[in-house]
Design brief:
With about 280 residues, the chain is of the alpha/beta class. It is built from eleven helices and eight strands. Helix 3 runs antiparallel to helix 6. About 20% of the residues are buried.
Amino acid sequence: MGTLADFVELQKGFNADEAVIAIPTASREELAAILKTVERHVKTVLYIPDMYMLTVSSASIGNLDGMPVISSSQGLLNPLNLAVKTVIDYIGASIALLIFSPFMIWAAWRIKREDGGPVFFVQERVGWKGKHFMTYKFRSMYTNADEITRKLFSDPEIFAAYKKGIKLKDDPRLTKIGAVLRKTSIDELPQLFNVFRGEMSLVGPRPLMQSDVDMVYGEEFTKKVYAAKPGLTGIWQVSGRSDLDADFRREINCYYVHNWSVWLDIAILLKTPLAVITSKGAY
């Protein structure tokens, strides 16, 4: 609408009583000059500092011996918050098990009927505080999936995509019923038992294989994100799932852990059915 030189006239024209200064590249001298001009003509001045990765919803302004400070807290380090989250997990998992048990029985029957192989797929994953645990899922791949994986990864393009966190859209390892279970997320329902065992939460970051940590995400990411228990659903599931690249998954999972609240968990739980119905990024 104009430059700083036009500010006074613009303020008179719009009768603005509040101004926001958001110029992170400005030097201290430039900011001082801008403030000197602006604060004489408006009642309130809001200043957005250059605080990359600290501009989070958990941040608040405080006072330390007369100096303004920005405080940032991590709710999951509070034992009371962890206790509340655990109670919600047990109650929610109990309700979910009652509601979804018919689907789980149907899934087990269809898997056994298709190829006679095992119903469940049990795999070691990285979890809370970096500890390893065994996750339970309905088997969605052929019994010789490891052999098929080795053949797939012999293709440099496919292996390079995997290292970037990109999943195969037409995965040849999936059985017919497995593709349906993946699309509807029914394959994840046995992880309710992981919730009862205290290894997972209803909401949290995705539990990773150690190979994903080594090749895609890194140890530093793992330490940050698994301050929270891995979840049956999470912020990445309601934000696009496998359509998101590895970098964005890192960012949104770090955001979740740093900004955790009961209300954020509730919001994610409420959004999850829509994410399942639309199947966006599910393959």
